[in-house]
Write a structure and sequence with these properties.
4 strands, two-stranded antiparallel sheet, 292 residues, 9 helices, mainly alpha
Amino acid sequence: MPELDGYLYALAWNNNTSVVVITLIFYEYVLQFEKEVTFVWERQWSMMTYLYLAVRYFGGGLFYIPEAVSYGMFLFIQWSLSVYFCLGEVILIWRLYALYNQSKPILYVLLGLFIPIVALYIAVDIYLWSRPSAISIQEVIITPNIKYCAAFFHIGPMLAIYTSIPVICYDIFLVVLAIAALGKHLKERKELRMKPNTYVVVIVQYHVIYFVLNLANQIFMATLWANLSTAVMNLLLMFNDTAPFIIVPRLIISIWEAHANDNCVHVSTTFQDCLCWTSPPTLEEHELDSRE
């Protein structure tokens, strides 16, 4: 009887957190729908448009992970989450490539370091998430009409912690490059007595936000392998099932929105998605004077 009560408690937590996840994701879709129509469907598509559609709609199919899933579906979701986070890294790489004026050496370095990260994601999904000896999915029968599948972790969190370290180090490298680009940009603009470029600031802000998000995700995913209580595990899963699918698409669409709300004079092709990179100095100084 106590075991049955534990299963009912876990199922109740799953149902409650699932409602929260669905509500948050649906609300986010409603908030972004008008912007998506304006900046995606009513304009010419670029590479960043395809990345946006991938993280928006590919991720949208993964945000809800019910208890009643098969082992094959569980593996598909876990592997797909790894693909989703790799897409998020690609977006950051593309933005950094733009920040550094399409520097080929920077791009080659970022991609060269990113390939081992992809290989690490694959290795972790194979060795940790795809081995029944490490994690298994078991059918829990509460009543003849109420059945669900639950995940059981059979090894500790240390291996997951060790494999998350290279990913965290790579994200630190990306955010340091972004902050360095911002620092150089602010110094140059200060010397010219010009206002900082909006898009550089926004891109770096989202680099920092994504770094914090991915750091939290790596910590939480490693923590899942520890012997957690039902409440803590469901709260961690609720975070992992919502935050990435809200933050990553906003990383793209916020740049487009900033462009729409600005008065562009010179449109650069550096970002390849219609961004104002610089304005003629005389006009920009005039605009600064008028704003002050």
